[in-house]
Amino acid sequence: MIRPAHPAGPPPREAPIEVPVPSLVVLVGPAGSGKSTLAARLFAADEVLSSDALRAAIGGDAANQRATRPAFAVLHREVRRRLAGGRLVVVDATNVELTARRALVRLAADAGLAATAIVLALRATEVHARNLGRSGRVVPADVVDRHLAAMARLGHTPEAIATSLRNEGFAAAAVVTTPPELDALAIARSRSTHHPLSAVSDAARG
After folding, report:
1. pLDDT at residue 176, rounded to an integer
2. Which among 182, 100, 32 has a CA at the least distance from the CA of 91?
3. Which CATH topology does 15-205 take?
4. β-bridge partners, 25
5. CB neighbour list of residue 82: distance below 8 Å, 6 or more residues apart
6. Cα–Cα–Cα angle for 101, 106, 112, nearest 5°?
7. For the CA atoms of the chain, what is the radius of gyration?
8. Who wins on pLDDT, 40 or 10?
9. Which of 28, 49, 101, 145 has its CA 20 to 30 A from that of 91?
């Protein structure tokens, strides 16, 4: 079941994820879990910022880890610019580490906008199988295992993961745990000039 999580904490329900426009959407999940495929299905190409694409543009190869720091500097700068322009921005990166998520939530808070997390918390066996079946770059298994370990620190149930993310300052979170849930995931855009973000901003700056 898809479980949108809201600050007020309503019961989980199967429904599209509400995405305010403008706002920030942060995809969270290990390499190979299907984030890029999901982003391409749910969002327009000009709404998505991909860390792999930026690494490839800067370092000539999406696997070039030496390009990671400059790639994320560009990504953060572009997130800030697009949010300031009143756009919906989707960050397609693993975002499994707290520091990565915190930086993005802060950018949304600085713009006075909401940050929504979409978490792909599939089983480890499923993630590894998907990674090996990729048509493009296959990420080393030990790297995927590190991503999975970082994901585990968020919690072991959808409810625990969503709570952790709200505590980080996300206005909402949706957690999917199986391939059918991932395939069924949908969004509903809502026009919003500004989100009531005092609590979110405090958490993001904390």
Report:
1. 97
2. 100
3. Rossmann fold (3.40.50)
4. 90, 116
5. 49, 89
6. 130
7. 16
8. 40
9. 145
3-state secondary structure of 52: helix
Domain regions of the chain by residue span:
15-205
What does DSSP say about strands 3-5 and 172-176: parallel, antiparallel, or unpaired? antiparallel
- C-alpha to C-alpha distance for 19 and 115, rounded to whole angstroms: 9
Are 154 and 161 in contact, with CB atoms under 8 Å apart? yes
3-state secondary structure of 74: helix
Q: What is the pTM of this model?
A: 0.85
pLDDT at 42 over 50: yes
| ∠ CA 18-49-191, rounded to 5° | 30
Residues 6+ apart with CB under 8 A from 150: 96, 97
